[in-house]
Amino acid sequence: MKPFAKTRARAPLRLGLAGGGTDLSPYCDTFGGAILNMTIDRYAFASIIPRTDGKVVFEADDIGVSESFEADEPLHAELILHCGVYRRMIAEFNGGKPLPVTVKTTVDAPAGSGLGSSSSLVVALVDGFRDILGAPLGKYDVAHLAFEIERQDLGLSGGRQDQYAAAFGGVNFIEFLQADRVIVNPLRVSTPVYNELESSLVMCFSGRSRQSAAIIDQQTAGIRALDEATLAAMHTLKSDAMAMKQALLLGDIDLMAEILNASWRAKKATAKAVSNSMLDNLFDIAMAAGALAGKVSGAGGGGFMFFLVHPENRYRLIEALNAAGGVASPVKLTGSGSETWRF
After folding, report:
1. Annotated catalytic sites, by residue?
2. Which residues on neighbouring strands pair with residue 40, listed in sequence order?
3. What are the tens digits of pLDDT across the range 230-257?
4. Each residue's pLDDT tens digit, 88-133
5. Is the distance from CB of 89 to CB of 101 less than 8 angstroms?
6. 101-107 and 33-50: which strand pairing?
7. Strand order, beta sheet including 293-296
8. Which stretches of the chain are assigned E, i.e. beta strand?
9. Nearest Cα to 251, choosing from 335, 174, 188, 315?
10. Burial 4-20, CB ≥16 within 10 A → b, else e
C-alpha cells in the first residue's frame, strides 16, 4: 500500500419517518421490512492519520476516551466500534498487515440519541478505511459491511436502516427483503414539498440518552415467539411506511401527521419500554403548543423526539419544548451520504 495523506470521512445521522423496527431480524427475513427515513445535517466524523511509531491510537473526543496500542499486538479496546472496523478492514483489505494510524472521531449527537449515531460512525470509519486501502466498495457494500461489523462481529443489537441511510443520504424508502437483500429507493421529492417538509420539522432532545438494546431484544423476542400483538404492530409499521411515502410525494403534511401519530401508537405496542412518562409528557406539551404529530426517534426510551408542525407555528413549538426542559431546534435535511476526502 502506498503512503497516504490524512484522510477524513463523515456520514450523516437520520430521522425515521415511518417503518422503524421492521428492519430487525427475524421480522424482515420472514415478512420483509420497509422504512422511510431522511438524513439531517448532523454527522459522525472520522480522521485517519498515518503514524510512524508503529502504534494504533483510537480517540473519541466527544466522550473523552483515548487508547494506544502497539500495531503488531492484539487490540482489546474500549472503543469497540473503532476497533471492530479497524480489525475487519485490515483483515479483508490489507492482508492482515497492521496499519499504524490514529483514528480520531466525533459525533454531532450524544450516544443513545436515537439518530443512528453509532451506525453513522461505523459507516464513516468503513468509508475512510475504504479510501485509504483502495477497497472496491460501493455504497451498498459500505452499508452492508458496516451492518456486519456492528451486528455480527461485535454482536450489537439493532437493525439495518441506519447503515444504509448514512451511506446513501437523502430521503429514502428502503426495503429489507429475504436473503439479506436491501433496496434503497431515493425519493424524488419536489422542491416545494421538500422545503415544506423541512420547515415543518422540529427535533427535541429529551435530556436522557437511552440504551436501545433492551428494547430491541424485547421486540425481537416477540417476533420470534410469533406474539400476535408484536407482529400486528410490526405489520402496521410497515404499512405506515408505504402510506407515508405516498403522502410525502403528494406533499400532504396533514396526512403525514395522521400516519405519524398512528405509527407512534403502533411502535409503543412493540415493547413496553419504547415510551415512558418523560416522553409522553413532551409529546403532550408539543401537541398543546401546535404540533400535528410526533414520535420518538430510534428504538425509544429516550434520546430525540421529532414533531411535525405547520411552519407558522414552529417557533411557538420550539419555545414550549425548551421551556419544558427539552432541547428543541429546527431540522436541516441533507441529500448527501457518507463522504471522504484527503487533506
Report:
1. 162
2. 13, 333
3. 889 889 999 999 999 999 999 999 999 9
4. 999 999 999 999 999 999 999 987 788 999 999 999 999 999 999 9
5. no
6. antiparallel
7. 293-296, 304-308, 201-205, 327-330
8. 7-18, 33-50, 55-60, 65-70, 101-107, 171-177, 181-186, 201-205, 293-296, 304-308, 327-330, 339-342
9. 188
10. beebbbbbbbbbbbbbb
C-alpha cell at 329: 431546534
Show the cell assigned to 118: 453509532
| Residue type for position 68 | S
Which three cell numbers mark 174?
428502503
Question: By the 8 A CB rule, do 79 and 65 touch?
Answer: yes
Omega before 98 within 30 of 0, i.e. cis: no
Give dist(CA 37, CA 138) in Å, integer: 20
Nearest to 108 by CA among 8, 12, 213, 201: 12
Angle formed at CA 188 by CA 261 and CA 107, multiple of 5 degrees: 65
Q: What is the DSSP string of 87-103?
A: HHHHHHHSTT----EEE
